[in-house]
Specification:
Elements lengths: L7 E2 L9 E2 L4 H4 L10 H4 L3 H15 L3 H10 L4 E3 L5 H8 L12 H22 L5 H26 L1 E3 L8 H7 L4 E3 H13 L32 H11 L3 H12 L1 H5 L6 H6 L39 H4 L5 H4 L13 E7 L9 H5 L8 E3 L1 H8 L11 H6 E4 L2 E4 L7 E3 L6 E3 L9 E7 H14 L3 H6 L1
Parallel strand pairs: 1-2
Antiparallel strand pairs: 3-7, 4-5, 6-12, 8-9, 10-11
Helix pairs in contact: 3-6, 3-7, 6-7, 7-9, 9-10, 10-11, 11-19
Length: 465
């Protein structure tokens, strides 16, 4: 098991053994100007505002690789393979050099500066009556929440970071940012809470179908799960700030979505199962999403291990499946029973899926693998049917060509057979590297609700959940 995860520092020359990020703040903000349209060409109407947000999330998707490496490789469930480079080995060992590419927060700040620019221009659009007040609040709340999520990540990993909310337009602006004082995580969290609490309550809810952002597919995908879940973010911030009752109230707000909205009253299964983490059918058109067996649960060969039913399908279901990914007829929000926030990777658009390179030994570089700790833990459990393993492990990784492969990120790229030794491609070639960045699901909300209740001394409530 790895030692306690340490904060990454932004300075050189601090205590030995502390992770080092880069050579200083100046380098962090050493961002070269890019060719771009002028603001007069970009921010003309509501459709330009929507395009700015979709583009922002495209830029945000470039953080997926670094996010998984910093959050998962530094933990107990992933390990490096013999193919891993020095940077990955350093992250894994919590002994990072100052030139380590994954410890550099520059990419995060690039997205933050994009957020700042968009927020500034949305306010100008509102002042010039190019968008309505409701349209402004809906979209600015989304951008503000995404920026807040990034700052929370930076604070978690680095401890203290420059807190930048200004738009950057000139080289002098960039130089001025380099002098920003670093703000500790605890203070950043309080500031983020203040900003999110200032958002009118109705704009914390997900976009509804009358919103132009989600009224049409984007490159063939329903955008209903593209956008950050603001109640969940606020709950996380309250949890970090030790406001446990408020945190629990945010999580409960999400878990009781169907109760609050009367979700799909015509389909009782959807109404009952939305974000409820249940075992049964989600609706007449969808199978179970828990660990399930086909007929005889005492036959190990009956495990539902495919992309359409069972626990594996949470990570693999076809996102164009209308019975699973469409929207409610009554509440105009996604009826996906599990995913609150998920972003697709597809060969039709950039950025390219980074997880094939990280995890696959077919068409990828196979740099990361499940750790021995994770495998031993899965194999050391006993299920309620007395099988001496946790079937989620069987579906989380597969042995491909004699090597353990993290498969949750790969089910839309290739299919293993039951033994895992033979595979077939989902697409037409190895170049079709489709996949997903999994950011937040209902199970995470339930766990955090239980944590908030437990930390608040409500142990029976936490145990019940």
């Amino acid at each position: 098991m790895k030692s306690t995860i340490r904060k990454i520092t932004l300075n050189i020359g601090l205590a030995t053994g502390v992770l080092l990020g880069m050579s200083g703040c100046q380098k962090m903000f050493d961002l070269a100007p890019e060719e771009a349209l002028s603001t007069k060409q970009m921010y003309r109407d509501i459709y330009d505002a929507d395009a700015a947000i979709i583009g922002l999330y495209g830029k945000f998707s470039t953080l997926a690789k670094q996010y998984v490496i910093l959050n998962e490789l530094r933990g107990d469930l992933l390990d490096v393979t013999t193919n891993a480079d020095l940077s990955l080995r350093e992250i894994n060992a919590h002994a990072v050099s100052e030139t380590n590419e994954y410890a550099n927060p520059r990419a995060y700040y690039e997205v933050i500066l994009n957020c700042n620019d968009i927020l500034k221009n949305f306010k100008i659009m509102l002042d010039q009556n190019k968008i309505k007040r409701a349209e402004y609040y809906q979209r600015s709340a989304d951008v503000l929440a995404l920026r807040s999520w990034i700052y929370l990540q930076l604070g978690i990993h680095y401890g203290s970071v420059p807190y930048v909310t200004e738009s950057v337009e000139t080289v002098n602006d960039v130089k001025a940012l380099a002098t920003k004082a670093r703000v500790p995580l605890a203070d950043i969290v309080k500031e983020l809470i203040k900003e999110l609490e200032a958002i009118p309550a109705s704009y914390l809810d997900p976009y509804t179908l009358d919103n132009t952002l989600v009224s049409a597919n984007v490159d063939g995908y329903s955008p209903t799960t593209f956008f950050i879940q603001k109640h969940l973010l606020l709950g996380d911030l309250y949890l970090w700030d030790q406001q446990y009752t408020k945190a629990a109230s945010m999580y409960k707000y999400i878990m009781t979505t169907s109760d609050r909205l009367g979700f799909e009253a015509t389909d009782i299964n959807v109404w009952y199962h939305l974000y409820k983490i249940t075992r049964g059918q989600i609706s007449s058109g969808m199978g179970p999403i828990a660990v399930s067996y086909n007929s005889d649960i005492n036959d190990v060969n009956n495990l539902l291990d495919n992309n359409t039913t069972g626990w594996r399908s949470i990570f693999a279901r076809d996102r164009s499946n209308t019975s699973f990914n469409s929207t409610s007829n009554t509440s105009s929000i996604s009826r996906d029973p599990e995913w609150l926030w998920l972003l697709p990777f597809d060969n039709k658009f950039l950025p390219e899926n980074p997880f094939v390179e990280l995890f696959s030994n077919v068409g990828g570089k196979y740099l990361l693998q499940p750790s021995k700790t994770a495998i031993d833990y899965w194999n050391g459990q006993t299920q309620t049917n007395n099988f001496a393993y946790d079937a989620r492990g069987v579906m989380s990784y597969k042995n491909i060509n004699g090597n353990p492969v993290v498969f949750k990120y790969l089910y839309n790229f290739m299919n293993p057979n039951s033994s895992g030794s033979i595979y077939s491609l989902v697409g037409k070639s190895l170049q079709e590297k489709n996949g997903r960045w999994f950011l937040n699901r209902a199970a995470n909300v339930h766990l955090k609700f239980a944590e908030a209740a437990n930390r608040d001394g409500r142990r029976k409530l936490a145990y019940a959940w």
